[in-house]
Write a structure and sequence with these properties.
161 residues; alpha+beta
């Protein structure tokens, strides 16, 4: 028996999704979410911070199961369009590899005619991504040690990663 997706979700041509080793650009993601019909583009930028629970962090390392993670991104966009039908564009980009403090690890952008829907949809996208996408991060500590953390686990802790 082989494991396959029963119904692969296809993305809309106007949406954009990526998992990449390359640095992420706020300008590029904003431009991909922009549309003449938009009254708002909301962008969420997640960055590597210098500490977790007061312990100094020097870097994060991300890994992803890319085919499944992209399917999660497609599902998020489909869900957004079901919940907020006026949304014009959904953009979700996530970095993998080793990132230093201050580098952008994830960008989510939603373009929509109205700001309230754009904010709600963007919040839904990042929360759902962190909970459902098979993406893991390894925290590299100042003392030279490191530990893996599932992003989904962050939503269940008070730290909120």
């Amino acid at each position: 028996m082989t494991n396959t997706f029963i119904s692969a979700i296809k993305s809309k041509a106007e949406d954009s999704f990526a998992i990449t080793f390359a640095p992420l650009s706020l300008e590029d993601v904003y431009a991909k979410a922009n549309d003449p019909a938009n009254g708002a583009v909301v962008v969420m930028s997640g960055m590597v911070r210098n500490q977790t629970d007061g312990e100094p962090v020097v870097a994060l390392e991300y890994q992803a199961y890319e085919p499944m993670a992209l399917q999660v991104f497609y599902q998020i966009a489909a869900d957004i369009r079901s919940l907020w039908p006026d949304v014009n564009r959904v953009v979700i980009y996530h970095r993998i590899g080793r990132l230093s403090v201050g580098e952008i690890s994830v960008l989510v952008a939603v373009g929509c005619p109205h700001r309230s829907e754009a904010f709600a949809a963007c919040g839904y996208a990042i929360d759902t991504l962190k909970h459902n996408a098979p993406i893991w991060k390894k925290e590299h500590w100042a003392d030279g040690s490191s530990s893996w953390v599932s992003i989904g686990a962050c939503e269940q802790s008070e730290a909120g990663c």
